[in-house]
Amino acid sequence: MNLLPLSPPGEPPVRVMTIAGSDSGGGAGIQADLRTFAMLGLHGCVAVVAVTVQNSVGVRAFHEIPTDIIAGQIAAVTSDIGISAAKTGMLASAEIIETVAHTWTSEKLTVPLVVDPVCASMHGDPLLHHSALDSLRNVLFPLATVITPNLDEVRLLVGIDVVDDASQRDAARALHDLGPQWVLVKGGHLRSSAGSPDLLYDGTGFFEFNTQRIDTGHDHGAGDTLAAATTCALAHGYSVPEAVAFAKDWVTECLRAAYPLGHGHGPVNALFRLRS
Ligand code: PXL
């Protein structure tokens, strides 16, 4: 696959930020984001919003970081180091979502923002209080360049059960009505085809991405990695369709190289890049 350009030696790499939760097992969340940022040659900055207690089998607990510390991390980084794009992952609560949105606006940030509306882990353990869905819909989505829900998140956010092309398009329209510039409805197991049909929509046109489906039991962090790679490509000036196409190829290679870990689900593997 084509990779992103590197800065010349001695010059700073392009900077991006993840606003997300920590995964103690190292497979998803901030740890996955930073791996993709680094393997694509970008400098990753972080606003930690929550610390999860988890392993390959499930999420046992999480602790939310105080909102002044979350706002402080975003303001400290953006006012000094500067970023070319950012992404959000696990945001845990309505208060945290509103803090992130408020800080984004008060710091007058205009760079691309990828919002991955993480609601639960792949084991089904909650990572967002359901009372926070309104804040996602009403406060954060209008600031997003692109939102990247999976089918479970689509059901929670707009109440649409995506079962075919038509319902996937209905879901994209309903989500776009909430205010993001672009919506990527990730198809996952939809249509049980050999592909992984993702649908991108900007209010006018639909773009379909049918990357080869890699069936592995080890896909922890796949959604985070897709959103992180999209963020990197946007930071390099790609258009949203170009960035999503790039990110789909990246996550496909990470899935191909996934490895087992512990007794449950292993992670996707951005480190494959070290061998190529
Ligand atoms: O993959 C979604 C995700 C995001 N962030 C954190 C997670 C998970 C899934 O487990 O733990 C911290």
TrEMBL record:
Enzyme Commission no: 2.7.1.49, 2.7.4.7
Keywords associated with the record: ATP-binding, Kinase, Nucleotide-binding, Thiamine biosynthesis, Transferase
Matching SUPFAM superfamilies: Ribokinase-like (SSF53613)
Example GO biological process: thiamine biosynthetic process
Keyword Kinase belongs to the record: yes
Catalytic activity: 4-amino-2-methyl-5-(phosphooxymethyl)pyrimidine + ATP = 4-amino-2-methyl-5-(diphosphooxymethyl)pyrimidine + ADP; 4-amino-5-hydroxymethyl-2-methylpyrimidine + ATP = 4-amino-2-methyl-5-(phosphooxymethyl)pyrimidine + ADP + H(+)
Record-linked InterPro entries: HMP/HMP-P_kinase_dom (IPR004399), PM/HMP-P_kinase-1 (IPR013749), Ribokinase-like (IPR029056)
Domain (Pyridoxamine kinase/Phosphomethylpyrimidine kinase) ranges: 23-269
Domain of life: Bacteria
Functional pathway: Cofactor biosynthesis; thiamine diphosphate biosynthesis; 4-amino-2-methyl-5-diphosphomethylpyrimidine from 5-amino-1-(5-phospho-D-ribosyl)imidazole: step 2/3; Cofactor biosynthesis; thiamine diphosphate biosynthesis; 4-amino-2-methyl-5-diphosphomethylpyrimidine from 5-amino-1-(5-phospho-D-ribosyl)imidazole: step 3/3
Keyword Transferase in annotation: yes
EC primary class: transferase
GO cellular component terms given for this protein: cytosol
Gene Ontology molecular-function annotations: ATP binding; hydroxymethylpyrimidine kinase activity; phosphomethylpyrimidine kinase activity
Function noted in UniProt: Catalyzes the phosphorylation of hydroxymethylpyrimidine phosphate (HMP-P) to HMP-PP, and of HMP to HMP-P.
PANTHER family registered for this protein in UniProt: HYDROXYMETHYLPYRIMIDINE_PHOSPHOMETHYLPYRIMIDINE KINASE THI20-RELATED, PHOSPHOMETHYLPYRIMIDINE KINASE
UniProt-recorded name of the protein: Hydroxymethylpyrimidine/phosphomethylpyrimidine kinase
Species of the source: Mycolicibacterium brumae
Gene name linked to the record: thiD
